[in-house]
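Review form for a predicted model. The reviewer records the input and the model, then writes brief findings.
Reviewer: anonymous (R2)
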Amino acid sequence: IPTGKEGTLSTAFLTSDKSLFIGERNNDDDYGQIGLVSGYMEYQEKLGDINIMKNLSREANEELGMDPSDIHSAEIVGVFTHPFRGDVDITYLARTKLTKDYCLSGERKKNAKDVEHKKFIEIDSYNQIQKILSIKNIQYPARGLLENLTTNDFD
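Model under review:
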C-alpha cells in the first residue's frame, strides 16, 4: 500500500548571481546536520507520472518561501543512499531567478511555511566546496551534490 513517502527529493538552489545555499537542519531527526531542501515525493502509480518540478516547487515554497515561477530549471545530480538507514534521495540542482539577497535576507524566513534550517551557508565558489566537504556532519545528499559540482557551475 503506497504511503506517499516512497522517495525523497533533495534540492540545492543556485541563485541567478551564482550562489548556492545549504542549511543547518533544525528538525528533530537531523538537528545540526548540514543538508539540502528536501521532502517526500508524491506517490504515483506510474513512475512517469511523477512531476519533479511540482514536488521540487512545493518543497522550495515550504522551506524557502519561493514561488514556483522563481525556479526556471532543475537537473538531476544523482541518487544517494544513506549507508545505514537505506534512505534514497533523488538529488537536484535547481536554478532560480532569485538573487542571493533573497536567501540572506529576512524575506526568505518570512515567506517560508516550514523553517527546517536554522541557518544557511552560502557557497559562491568551487574552492568553498572543498572546505565545506571537510565538515563531518553533512547529510549524504548534500555531500553527493557538492562532490558533483564543478567550477563551471559558478561561472
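Findings: The longest helix spans residues 52-64.
Further findings: The helical segments are 52-64, 100-104, 106-111, 126-132, 140-148.
Recommendation: see findings above.
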